[in-house]
Design a protein that fits this description.
- The chain is of the alpha/beta class and 249 residues long.
- It has one domain (12-248): Rossmann fold, CATH 3.40.50.720.
- Helix content is 44%, strand content 15%.
- It has a seven-stranded parallel sheet, sandwiched between helices.
- Strand 1, helix 1 (21-32) and strand 2 form a beta-alpha-beta unit.
- The model has no long low-confidence stretch (mean pLDDT 96).
- The structure holds NADP nicotinamide-adenine-dinucleotide phosphate (NAP).
- The site of NADP nicotinamide-adenine-dinucleotide phosphate has 30 residues, from helix 1 and helix 6.
- GO terms for molecular function: 3-oxoacyl-[acyl-carrier-protein] reductase (NADPH) activity.
- This is 3-oxoacyl-[acyl-carrier-protein] reductase MabA.
Length: 249
Amino acid sequence: MSPNNTRFSDRRALVTGSTGGLGVAIAKALAAEGAIVIVSGRDKARGDAVVADIRARGGRADFVAADLGAGEAEVRRLAEAAGPVDILVNNAGVWSLPLPTAEVSEEALLASYRTNVIAPFLLTAALAPAMARRGGGAVVNIGSITGLIGGDKSALYSSTKAAVHSLTKSWAAEYGPAGVRINAVAPGPIATDRALEAADHVGPVLARIPSRRMSTPEEVAAAVLFLAGDDAANIHGAVLSVDGGWAAV
Ligand SMILES: NC(=O)c1ccc[n+]([C@@H]2O[C@H](COP(=O)([O-])OP(=O)(O)OC[C@H]3O[C@@H](n4cnc5c(N)ncnc54)[C@H](OP(=O)(O)O)[C@@H]3O)[C@@H](O)[C@H]2O)c1
């Protein structure tokens, strides 16, 4: 993974939720292509391990701990600690097990919305204007297939991801004219530990997906890098599905 490719040479990239799962693949892929990556999450030990792995391969990375469910002050602290960034990947998210709407507590609603919607909202508000002042940048939000289609007992999680897709489009209108491109990736099931632990839930849906399989984290990361990079220079407000074709059928 030595950074011999210069697609993101010297660009600073903050990847939230990069202590585990998809975020690790995104952080490693950006670092392998020359970016200086700020790895973030709550778990310092896992964050330090990701940073060590990137550095061992010749890449550049630092860890900043942050709990994105803890409110505005914590989000602002992360934005300040990250410094001026050219790329923001709003990846951190919490999945909720399928539950009838009537059984979703207000506490669970607020917890999901804090991490999945309010944190990326506040982080983008903190970083996108500075990107614009420096001449441009890119934000990639991680949405979900569940934000594009309905799902039985999935109202809580799905609605947070639909909000992420909606924010992507409004922010494209707001920040695009200043050179900040805002796009989203909408993954279907990804073979992360989280999805593999929920195999009982994920397994049956694979039969409905044209590719008949989950995406690898690396396949989703490739789409994130495409949207973050100059090959997507005139792509604004897109929600790119990486779902084996699920949203199409
Ligand atoms: N896996 C899938 O099948 C799938 C499908 C579609 C979309 N997605 C989306 O893809 C993104 C990544 O999912 P994943 O499967 O990689 O999840 P994951 O394995 O559970 O990892 C989630 C990451 O987010 C971080 N995180 C969670 N809560 C946080 C908080 N309060 N503050 C800061 N960081 C927090 C975790 O770090 P710490 O534990 O260190 O805080 C971890 O690094 C999410 O937005 C998810 O909704 C996933």
